[in-house]
Design goal:
Length: about 80
């Protein structure tokens, strides 16, 4: 699946991943391939992504929202 992490200033990350872990308001949650469509608010925390070559990458966000639709994950960080 494809992910984009975007701030008001720039695009932080774009790429193909197999897993995304996000800091939801009620606790962290994970998005895998073929996840159902979802829109959720995010709190301050760490976004963890696992790339297709099994590398883990971490991004700190101050909060924001995530949209998942058709194997595309869009994280709009504040």
């Amino acid at each position: 699946m494809n992910i984009q992490i975007i701030t008001p200033d720039n695009t932080v990350y774009t790429g193909e991943v197999t897993l995304v872990q996000l800091p939801g308001l009620d606790g962290s949650f994970e998005i895998l391939n073929n996840h159902a469509p979802i829109i959720s608010a995010l709190k301050k925390g760490t976004v963890k992504v696992k790339t297709t070559d099994e590398k883990l990458e971490y991004f700190e966000i101050p909060g924001g929202v995530v949209e998942v639709l058709n194997n595309k994950v869009l994280v709009l960080a504040e």
